[in-house]
Amino acid sequence: MEAAGERGARPDCGCKGIRSCLLCEGPAQAAPPPQKNDNFVYCPATGLAVGEPHSEFAGWAFPFPGVFLLEDFINEDEESKMVQLMDRDDWKLSQSGRRKQDYGPKVNFKKHKLKAGGFLGLPSFSQELVKRMEAYSVLEGFFPVEQCNLDYLPERGSAINPHFDDEWLWGERLVSLNLLSRTVLSMSCDSEDSLRLFTTLNQGGKKSNHFGFPRTSQNHEPNNCTPLSGFSNAEREISYASPTRLIPFKDATVAIHLTRRSLLVLYGAARYEWKHAIYRKHVESRRICITFRELSAEFSMGGEQEELGKELLEIALAFQGKPV
Question: Which residue spans traverse the membrane (predicted)?
C-alpha cells in the first residue's frame, strides 16, 4: 500500500498527497485529519472572540477584527433555484471528500502563471448576488473574478484543512455564501506571539455580554457602517477596565458559526493572519459553499499585471449561462 504522502489522485475521490476522505481511508479507516476543539467563539454583535464556557478560557475574550457575517443573505426560494442550477452541471472530484465547480482563470499558483483562455465568466445567477453585495460598505468596490462552488457531504468525510488563501492573485476580501446546512468555520493561528485576553467578568464581578463598544454591521444596515471600526480604541478601553492575561496566538482557536444562507466576508487580520478550516465533525448534512475572490493589487490598477487583471475582470462581469 502506498504511503499517504506518495498517493496520487484516486479516481473515486480525488484525494492526493496527505489529503484523505472516508472513501480512500477504506473500511479500516485511518485516523482523520486533526480536528481541534475550538476554545473561543466569534460573537457577531460585538466583534469579539469569547471563551467557550467549558474551556480554560471561559470568561475571557479578545477583539477579532476582519469578519463580516450577515444572516439570510438570500431566501429559501433563491437558495433552492441556485442549487438546482449548480446540480445541472458536472461536479468535479476534489480533495478531502469535496466536489467542486470552478469559474475562473486557469492558475498555477506555484509558478505564478495564469491563463484567461477558457474562462467564460461567472454563472449568470451570480449577477444578482454581486449586485446585492454592493449594498454593504465592507464590500464596496468588490468585483469578483473567480467563483468556486464546493460541495460537502458527511458520507464522504468532506472537509478542508487549515489554510491561507493565495495572496499573489487573490485580493483582501474572501466572500462565501453558505447553503443547505449550517457549519462552523474554525480559525487558527500559528504565531508564537502573545495574544492579550481580557476578562468579561466585570461590572462588580458579574459576567456581562454587553461591552459598550462599536457594534459590527450585524445590524445589516447597508452603506452606513464600517465593520469592526474603532476596535483599536475598544481594546485600549478594555485593557484598562478589566484584568488581562497573555497566551500564545497558537493556543486560541475561534469558531465562526455559519447559519444556512449566511454570507461571510474575511478581510484584514482574519484573512492574512488566521488560517481557516472546515472539519468533518461540522459537516452535518450536504453543504454547498460559494466563494467569490477579487484580484490582488498586482492585477489591479497600477499593478504590474494591470492589463491582464482588466481582461479577467471584463470576462468575469460579462457573466454566462441561464439566469435564475
Answer: none
Query: Rounded distance, CA 228 to CA 231, Å?
Result: 6
Residue 233 lies in a domain: yes
Mean model confidence pLDDT for the chain:
84
Domain contains 322:
no
Residue 159 near residue 283, CB atoms below 8 Å: yes
Helix (H) or strand (E) holding 234: helix 231-241
2 in any annotated domain = no
The CATH number of the domain holding residue 168 is 2.60.120.590
- What number is the average pLDDT over the span 150-155? 97
Q: Provide the residue range defining the domain that includes 248.
A: 31-316
- Count the domains in the chain: 1
- 8 Å CB contact between 133 and 217: no
- From 200, 184, 213, select the one nearest 280 (Cα to Cα): 184
Point out which residues pair with 290 in neighbouring strands.
Answer: 149, 177
> What confidence category does residue 102 fall into, taking pLDDT thresholds of 50, 70 and 90?
very high
Among 194, 177, 172, 195, residue whose Cα is nearest residue 297: 172
Measured CA to CA, the distance from residue 110 to residue 285 in angstroms comes to: 34
The pTM assigned to this predicted structure is 0.84
